[in-house]
Structure formats: C-alpha cells, structure tokens
Amino acid sequence: MPNNSSSLIKTVDILSIIISGIIVYIAYLGFEELPIPLYYSTAIVLGVLLSLVIFPWFGVHKLEEYNFFPSVHKLIFAWITVIAVLNLLGFGLKVSTGFSRVWMVGWTILGSAMLVFMRLAVHHSVYLINKQGRHLNKIVIIGAQQLGQTLVRNIKASKPYINVDVVAFFDDETQQDNTVENIPVNNNMSALPTFVKENEISEVWVTPQSINSSCLETILHQLRHNLVTVRFVANFFSFRMINASITNRYGLPVITLTESPMTKRRNRLIKTIEDKILATLILLVISPLMLVVAIGVKLSSPGPILFRQERVGWNGEPFIMLKFRSMPVNVEKDSGPVWAKGGENRATRFGSFLRKTSLDELPQFLNVLKGEMSIVGPRPERPCFVEQFKDEIPDYMQKHLVKAGITGWAQVKGWRGNTGLPQRIEHDIYYIENWSVWFDIQIILMTIVTGFFDNNAY
C-alpha cells in the first residue's frame, strides 16, 4: 500500500461517519428539520474525534492488509466502541436524553456499513491502479539465498496490491549466471551501479544470509552516485521472534526480537478493563452455581472448600491460584507433586465431576479480579514443573509474557490436560503474537460452546 494510506483512510473514515450521521438524521426526522440541531452536530463531531483516538487502538487506522476482509470485524468493533464511549459521555454529562435512540442505533448500523464499504472501495481502487502497472517500482535484490527468495515470494503473493517488479538478483557467491524464482542472478557485483542506472531501478534490497557490515559498506559506496533507495533486510530466520518490531531508542535504531503485547500501556489498560468488567459480570451470573458447588465440595469430603496452589504467572512471578477442592486433603503428602493424567483416581467422586466439567476452575475469576490472572491467557503451571519444562520444551518460558488465563487458545483447540506440551506452547505463543480484544472474545465464545466438557481434563 502507499505510504500515505493512513491519511487517505482517516479522510475516508471521517466522511463515512459524518455522512452516515446526516443521512440517518434526515431519514428519521425529514428535511423539514434541517439544519441539524447543534447537539446532533456536536455528537457527530465528537464521534469523528473519538474515532481518531480509538481506531488506532484497534489497528484500523491504516489500510495495510493485502486481504481486506479479515480486518472488517476489527473496524466494526472499533466503531461500536466509539458509539459506546459517546453514549457514556452523554450519560455522564446528563445530555443523553436529548438524542433519539433510533438515530443513535441507525447511525451505528449505517456508520458500520459505510466505513466498510468506503474502505473496500479504496482497497479495490488501489488494486485496479496497481493492476494497470502505473508507476512501476523496479527493485534489485542483493542475495539470492533463502532470505532473498522469501522476499520475492512475498512480493509475488502481494500483487497486484503492491506495484513492484523484481528485475534481478545480485549475488557474488554464485558460480555462474542463472535464475532463482524465474529471476536472473548476476554474480558481478561491480556491475551493480551501471545496472541500476540503465534499468531505472527504484530500490536495492540487501538480503545477506549473514550480516556483514563491510559488505554493506561496499554496496553503499558503489551506489553513492545513484539516486536509489537502499533497504537492508536482516536475517532472523534462526530466531523465534514474538511481536518483533523496529524502533528508535536513545537515538539508535533498535530491533526488538521478543516483546510482550502488554508492554504497551494502552494494551495493558484495555486488557485490564476487559478482565475486570467480564469477571464481575460472570461472577454475578455464576454465583448461585458456585454456591451449589461449594456445598457439594463440603459434603463430598472433609476439608476446605477452596484449594490454594502456587502457580507461575506474568513475568514468572508466583501467585496463589484458587480452585474448588477436588481431591482429599494432603493427597500429595507422600507422592509429592504429580502431573495429572488419565486413569488416576486421586479425585473424589464429586471432584472428578468438577474436573470433567471444569467447574473446579470457577474461583479463578476471583484471581482475575485481584489482577493475578486474565480470563484468557496461557494456563499457569506449578513452579516445580516450570523448572522442569523450561529446559525440555523450546520457548516454554515465553508463555509468561502475558498473564495466565482461565481459558486459552491451546485449551479451546483441545490441548489441555495430559496432552502434548510442545503443541500447547505453540498455541500459547500464537495467542501472544496475535493478541487482540476480538481474539479474546473469540476464545471466550469457543470456551462457552466447547470448553466445559473435555476428555483430557483429569
């Protein structure tokens, strides 16, 4: 996409919000009520201003995705959030009664439709313009190895949403001229400046398999007389990167290889609000059920109702996780910590039912209210097992980049209980890499539908 896509999309969004608000007003109250009263105009302006603040939170302030449709739900959710905040402001200022509910609902619906339609129109227009081949951006890639080949494949997969043509590879490690990915390879690096000038090359992408500063200096020196953009693609194929990014820190360009999405204060705030509100509502709904379960635990065997166990959470910090007690007291006194597995009979009869239905997990919503856990996140483990698994399973400790959860992506995909730990960790890291409010809601809904009964819960 063009670099100025952000400004274009902001303009389109502003027009969509304003026009949809006016259309709904006219449709509801008619032309005789024009001009629009000041308080309706103020609401529309506030809606625009809130969108400029809230849309970036949801990552929908730019049209960067080559496939438009996966971002539609985020755009609609962001717009609904704008409307919700606007209503809260109206309620707090005691002016909400002056607005028609029909207008507000209609503005929400039509605004969603227009935001999606207008963005789709822009997206398709960019597609058509690039498909016609105007302003072709011709590039040369230095390095015909894995990294350079991956770059070519990604460029081909993105066409025609990007108007880029890879003209040639330059790689002095090749023994003779040949082709890679149907693109000619030139092994004469000294011919690079002449080739760039004669073929009107716009950009030179440097993709060495090993980062060699002297090689890069030579290339920059060769191209010093060419008005060409030079880009450097570092080779990180050997690293497992989580939320990688490039930033400027302390006056220096810094590449972040691994970062928790909760490093950003905005994300922490959103996640906290999500957890507190949902945990409060869920506890209000399930409190009668929790009372029944508590009575059942008390009657099934002597001992406390709640079971408290140390687990490892966010940033590797320990906390005490709450569960309804499903086993007799001191069941691990002689055996020590035991990994739960099928066929064991340590749980009471009622406790076995609680585990099978996951009802023993309900008190963890109290952990969520205390800020020790999230509703959605990787499941926490006991310290002794963390010490064991961190050396046995690659990237195991990365699951602690976010708060532990009551449910998670691994759990709703069937990786819970005595199942493959490497697969569970892969799912946990996938969740961390792709975290969003919508992803959390998706997991919660999947838990409600499929997560209460599980054959792997012991």
Short description:
It contains 14 helices and twelve strands. By secondary structure, it is an alpha/beta fold.
Low-pLDDT stretches: none
Quickly give the structural class: alpha/beta
Radius of gyration: 28 Å
Mean pLDDT: 82
Number of strands: 12
Provide structural commentary.
- With 458 residues, this protein is of the alpha/beta class.
- Helix content is 47%, strand content 13%.
- It starts with a helix and ends in a 7-residue tail after the last helix.
- The mean pLDDT is 82.
List the helices and strands and how they pair.
Blueprint: H1 5-29, H2 38-54, H3 72-92, H4 101-131, E1 137-142, H5 146-158, E2 164-170, E3 178-180, E4 183-186, H6 192-198, E5 203-206, H7 213-222, E6 229-232, E7 245-249, E8 252-256, H8 265-300, E9 306-312, E10 318-324, H9 349-357, H10 364-369, E11 374-376, H11 383-392, E12 405-407, H12 409-412, H13 421-433, H14 437-451
Parallel strand pairs: 1-2, 1-5, 2-4, 5-6, 11-12
Antiparallel strand pairs: 3-4, 7-8, 9-10
Helix pairs in contact: 1-2, 1-4, 2-3, 3-4, 8-9
Tags for this model:
two-stranded antiparallel sheet, single chain, Rossmann fold, 13% strand, 6-stranded mixed sheet, 458 residues, 3 domains, flat, 47% helix, 14 helices, alpha/beta
